[in-house]
Amino acid sequence: MRFFLRRLGFYLITFWAAVTINFFIPRIMPGDPVSALIAKNQGRISPDAAEALRTLFGLDENMSLWDQYVQYWNLLLHGELGTSFAYSAPVADVIAGAIPWTIGLVGIATIISFTLGTLIGSGIGWRRGTWADSLLPISTFFSAVPYFWLALIAISVFSVTLGWFPASGSYDRSLVPSFSWEFISSVIYYGTLPALTIVISSISGWILGMRNMMVTVSSEDYVTVAQAKGVSERTALFGYSARNAILPQVSSFALSLGFIVGGTLVMEIVFSYQGIGYYLFTAVAAKDYPLMQGIFLVITVAVLFANIVADFIYGVLDPRTRQEG
Amino acid sequence: MTIDTSIVEEGQELEKPSQAPMTGVVAAAEGRRRGKPRKFLFLRNSKAVAGMVILGFFLLIAIIGPWIAPYDPSARSDDILQPPSWEHWFGTTHLGQDVFSQILVGTRGVIVVGFVAGILATAIGVIVGVTAGYIGGLGDETLSVLANVFLVIPQLPLIIIIAGQLPTVGGVTVAVVIAITGWAWGARVLRAQTLSLRRRDFVEAARANGERTWRIITAEILPNLTAIIASGFVGTVAFAVLSLITLSFIGIGNTGEWNWGTVLYQAQSQLALQRGAWWWFVPAGLCIALLGMSLTLINFGIDEFVNPRLRSTGLNARSLRKRGIRPRIGFTPVVREAEETRA
Amino acid sequence: MTIASPIGHPQRLAPASDPVLEIKNLSVDYGYDDDPVHVLRQVSLTLGRGEVLGLAGESGCGKSTLAYAATRLLPPPGLITGGEVLFTDRSGVKTDLLRLNDTQLRASRWQDMAIVFQGAMNSLNPVYRIGRQIADGIRAHEPKTSQKEALERAAELLDLVGISPDRLRSYPHELSGGMRQRVMIAMALALDPQVLIMDEPTTALDVVMQRQIVEQIAELRDRLGFSVIFITHDVSLLIEIADRIAIMYAGEIVEDAAALDVYNKPRHPYSSALLHSFPPLRGPRRELIGIPGSPPDLSRLGGGCPFADRCAFAFDACSKVNPELVFPNVPGDDPRRSVACLRHDPAAVRAVGEVPLPVPAELSLS
Ligand SMILES: Nc1ncnc2c1ncn2[C@@H]1O[C@H](COP(=O)(O)OP(=O)(O)OP(=O)(O)O)[C@@H](O)[C@H]1O
Ligand code: SF4
Ligand SMILES: [Mg+2]
């Protein structure tokens, strides 16, 4: 229990830190681009919304920093993230429309990639010194290329040249989103190539990580003891080696999640997949600061949440954490 | 480029005491190898050597690239969207610019940002990590939380919101932003190692002798962290390169300054994909991959140095198979090769 | 100088005609490349049924290697390059463990021969309860046994080694070092093995705990009747528990004799020196002297006796011939003991054209 409480405390601190960073960035930046944008968008933004933006970006000169900070939190906790200039709509709404797509695509692809990569890594680590080692250079290559570049390659091969998959979008635009099979299959069809790309580009990290952990763990005595007991190869591999090697793998899952999410967001841009990453890109291009900052916060919260889940899984997997305290 | 091998070797010693008894066997094996000349041991690691050769190549290009580039990378010409040819090795863009020259000239931007960010982030990481590990207590607790916070917050979006709100974004600014967001990993690893070093006899002894903290850190602790610092630096450079290219690719940063990411940005925004102009985006990506791989390989070399268990056993799979050896835990291979001289 | 049996257990020299484990000319290399270290060079050792055989020697002499190789558990880059490991089961059928395929080997393991590793601290899987780990071994060999039955047997086993059965549900990190060691012993006894190999089962423990565990092993052996190979570098401990002692040096057995014979009348210079580097358990104190020098680097052994550099009795032939195990050149010795020293092997000395020297007085005590 102590373990979980400690971790929870840590995530609260992280959340606070992310919000505070978000609060200060526009305030310490030279220049005052937001005022200009508010002025430019005067007709399209309601006075209320403009007021919120002033608070979020610290344009009220005569308010103390502390008051600004309190008010900032107040707005955030009410779900008020400001108004997007580019979409002339509340940031929260824009994000709400985008986030299911990202979670569906990135979430599923990441889980597939983690599971597969961990399995393959176990195999390679277990059968060291065999042909399986020759997978290593390939994984090294894939772990070195940026995700979005692989996306470019995937599109040029599978969409432009072979025409197997659509090159952009998240579903057939002629369909109306609904829970019909037609729509869902279209989502799957459009999502396959981006998902495959995410899997291919992120899997090598998991393979390498798990392989190294397997090599380290396999030389632990308890694995040899398992073999000495004459348990089946499967039990020795999964019950003793992989079962322990996966612990650091889960922690590194938590730690590298931010990195992976970052990479996949850029991939959405390449695929024009209407998720968070795509909106972040359009926000950058349109200098839509409220949207940028809102997206950063939401991504952070999502990553924190995933971390909590990973911690929970770790706690379940490792009896040593449970016993603390 | 070479790495001072004598320092890296220290790192090898570093891990040993913490290894489990059974790996004493491995450590003993190291002892045996150590009988042989130890000089340039790091350089005998083929992965590290391959990595350094590739990295050296890119460093060279970074220096001489702008001089040897056949064309001005921004100069337009009438050869529009030409596939690779003798005149244009990597083809041309929609404006008739020479992609090969863009890549050559752009190498410098990538390397400079990568190394500046790497150096800055490593410096922050060393300061925070070693301090935290050395002082312990509440200070350690606070610094660790700080590092962990920066680890968990997704870096790329953070970089984007910082860089995206800056009025002008040159290469060095990007490097600084990357360093500010990317130091945490190194700090974390260094902290853990400093913590364990601090309890070692030689450090305890120095403290008992009343040596000054500053001297203990520079003379006793830092030399033992060299391998980790080096690997952290290499990792950060890789991360910085990827970040820079990603930022340029999504259009943050000065597009007037060439780097591989801006090449990709133009390719993407000018619909190179749809036009089938593969030469526009393939070379830049391969360069990134090669550079990234070289850094990864160097780090593999360092890792295997520090943790001998990771060595791919230097085994040649084919020769093993020929001798019928399948290296496995729990089933020692038996070959009948020893001569029997005893009854 | 002769003393009575130290703790007074009867001197039981198993008849060589009833061996349970015969290691013959076992050779082991470390390294798969073309420059391996020959850690074991044609080592032969026989364990009689019901016997406790002690294996002693300085750190790094290859004791663990021998144990792991005999069970084929040596981790990479270990490689068995020759020899036989014959196991004789209760019905007298002999099998060469080095010729079994994976399935046969798995089936034989733990049933025929179980092993307690050096450093039980890391021998237990940290993420499983110990009950499950014991049950795993049982169920691997008796698939029909239900988990519940297996756990019940695990509880009995724990009881056997003096651990409360409710510890079944503990994780390894919840146990003390001594408890883990006992759990390992219990686990090793799970399938009633005929041979139990123990690699320094007590080194990590304090003296009181060492004593308890050694006594427990002796008691269990008397009760259950298995044979034991007990590895340690602590010879004095062996005198107490072992029937027979084999002394190892630089990857070879240099002396093999009844425990008290080794203690009272060592025939090999190294055994003698080794005995003088430990305080005697009981009886008159004798002067403690370390062995000068350090063990040779196994990767660069010459052709002579590996002990030559450190041996007080070395002579010309010692750098030329590597001595073989022979009957000691001392009249009246137990015919089953053997020693690998040129002082005892005039024939080998003459074979290289040197003049044999007599066995020095220290090595021919009676
Ligand atoms: N992987 C390896 N490569 C090369 N040599 C090795 C390797 N593992 C062990 N050795 C060598 O094999 C020899 C025997 O080691 P072993 O572990 O069997 O010794 P030991 O007698 O059990 O020592 P201890 O009493 O310390 O347990 C040692 O000299 C060691 O240096
Ligand atoms: S053979 Fe020679 S060197 Fe070896 S133990 Fe005997 S006397 Fe000593
Ligand atoms: Mg040993």
Automatic annotation (TrEMBL), chain A:
Pfam families the record matches: BPD_transp_1
InterPro entries listed in its UniProt record: MetI-like, MetI-like_sf
Principal localisation: membrane
Organism, scientific name: Agromyces allii
Residues that span the membrane, as ranges: 7-25, 98-126, 147-167, 187-208, 253-274, 294-317
Membrane topology value: Multi-pass membrane protein
Family: Belongs to the binding-protein-dependent transport system permease family.
Stretches assigned to the ABC transmembrane type-1 domain: 99-310
Protein name: ABC transporter permease
Domain of life: Bacteria
Keywords (A to Z) from UniProt: Membrane, Transmembrane, Transmembrane helix, Transport
From TrEMBL, chain B:
Transmembrane region(s): 48-69, 110-136, 143-163, 169-190, 225-252, 278-302
rRNA processing keyword on record: no
Annotated protein name in UniProt: ABC transporter permease
Subcellular location: Cell membrane
Native source species: Agromyces allii
Membrane topology recorded in Swiss-Prot or TrEMBL: Multi-pass membrane protein
Alphabetical keyword list: Cell membrane, Membrane, Transmembrane, Transmembrane helix, Transport
Lineage: Bacteria, Bacillati, Actinomycetota, Actinomycetes, Micrococcales
CDD domains recorded: TM_PBP2 (cd06261)
Ribonucleoprotein keyword on record: no
Family of the protein in this entry: Belongs to the binding-protein-dependent transport system permease family.
UniProt cross-references to InterPro entries, sorted A to Z: BP-dependent_transpt_permease, MetI-like, MetI-like_sf, OppC_N
Domain (ABC transmembrane type-1): residue spans on this chain: 107-299
PANTHER family, A to Z: D,D-DIPEPTIDE TRANSPORT SYSTEM PERMEASE PROTEIN DDPC-RELATED, OLIGOPEPTIDE TRANSPORT SYSTEM PERMEASE PROTEIN APPC
Any Pfam family: OppC_N
UniProtKB/TrEMBL annotation, chain C:
Residue stretches spanning the membrane: none
UniProt entry keywords in alphabetical sequence: ATP-binding, Cell membrane, Membrane, Nucleotide-binding, Transport
Keyword Disulfide bond tagged: no
Topological category with respect to the lipid bilayer: Peripheral membrane protein
Compartments, record wording: Cell membrane
Taxonomy, superkingdom: Bacteria
InterPro entries registered for this protein in UniProt: AAA+_ATPase, ABC_Ni/Peptide_Import, ABC_transporter-like_ATP-bd, ABC_transporter-like_CS, Oligopep_ABC_C, P-loop_NTPase
Molecular function in Gene Ontology: ATP binding
Annotated ranges, domain ABC transporter: 21-275
Pfam families for the chain: ABC_tran (PF00005), oligo_HPY (PF08352)
Coiled-coil positions: none
Family: Belongs to the ABC transporter superfamily.
Name of the protein this chain belongs to: ABC transporter ATP-binding protein
Higher taxonomy: Bacteria, Bacillati, Actinomycetota, Actinomycetes, Micrococcales
